[in-house]
Design goal:
Elements (H helix, E strand, L loop, with lengths): L3 E9 L6 H4 L7 E2 L4 E4 L5 E5 L3 E5 L3 H14 L8 E9 L6 E3 L2 E4 L4 H41 L7 H19 L14 H13 L2 H57 L2
Parallel strand pairs: 6-8
Antiparallel strand pairs: 1-5, 1-6, 2-3, 3-4, 4-5, 7-8
Length: about 260
């Protein structure tokens, strides 16, 4: 059997994809809690993941476009795909499973092994989307802290600040909720070669370090927002204390004013 190159092409979306809700549109698919998969002709296949990624295995461009349109019809409101990632590997009966110069080589690409590769490529594409989200949060938080440093305080109007904090918390929770992206798939426990494939690809895509960087930036964003909130709270407390002091002063001055009026001839 001659060697063969397999191409995996991943697309990540903004939205998560409810697999159970898609089953009616993909009657030929095999569905599990972690993926929806359906085969195509000549060893090709399509994978859909709940964290908002779709992977094509040996699928030509025209058929990819068709399947994307099909997914958009099955999930109305799906926003334009935002991240694309591709990866190729070589299947060669004479090869030993492993990476060579960044190229994965396997002796045999079974359906289960192809699923492990597809999942890892999907994880990398989804990770890139969250990297963009967190980088945007990180940059906006940095600008907010710079303005606070330049002005010595936060803006008096706190509604935009509260909205931004709400957005930051929502994005942070969304990123943390996909921690399972780095979980090792169950199939790797059944095949030592698949376990090696997953570990090699996870290293190739630098998934662990990228997630650690995400967590670090999220922690920095959280600490900066806590600082801004503390400053805003202190400012509002100061204003409240000033208002209370003014009211007390007014209460003292009013009787004195009345006394002075009655003392006039």
């Amino acid at each position: 059997m001659p060697s063969r190159t397999h191409q995996f092409y991943a697309i990540a979306f903004v939205e998560n994809l409810p697999l159970r809700g898609l089953t009616a549109h993909y009657p030929e698919a095999r569905v599990s809690p972690h993926e929806l998969y359906f085969p195509l002709d000549e060893g090709a296949g399509v994978y859909i993941y709940p964290f908002g990624a779709m992977v094509f295995h040996n699928v030509p461009q025209q058929r990819r476009d068709f399947e994307l349109t099909r997914l958009e019809q099955a999930h109305p409101g799906l926003r334009t795909q935002i991240v694309r990632e591709d990866y190729s590997l070589t299947e060669d009966p004479d090869s030993v499973v492993g990476l060579t110069n960044g190229n994965l080589r396997v002796d045999k690409l079974t359906t289960a092994r192809a699923g492990v590769v597809a999942l890892t490529v999907a994880q990398s594409a989804a990770m890139e989307y969250y990297e963009q989200v967190v980088e945007s949060l990180f940059a906006r938080t940095g600008k907010m802290v710079e303005r606070m440093e330049a002005r010595g305080s936060v803006p008096f109007r706190t509604r935009p600040l509260v909205r931004f904090i709400g957005e930051a918390i929502m994005n942070r929770n969304e990123v943390l909720s996909v921690l399972h992206l780095l979980d090792k798939p169950d199939a790797t426990w059944e095949d030592s070669a698949m376990d090696r494939i997953y570990d090699d690809l996870r290293t190739e895509f630098d998934l662990a370090d990228r997630y650690a960087a995400l967590e670090l930036k999220l922690r920095s964003v959280q600490e900066a927002l806590e600082l801004v909130v503390d400053v805003a709270r202190d400012r509002r407390l100061l204003l409240l204390e000033v208002a209370v002091a003014i009211l007390i002063l007014v209460e003292i001055l009013i009787p004195l004013f009345h006394i002075s009026l009655t003392a006039l001839p």
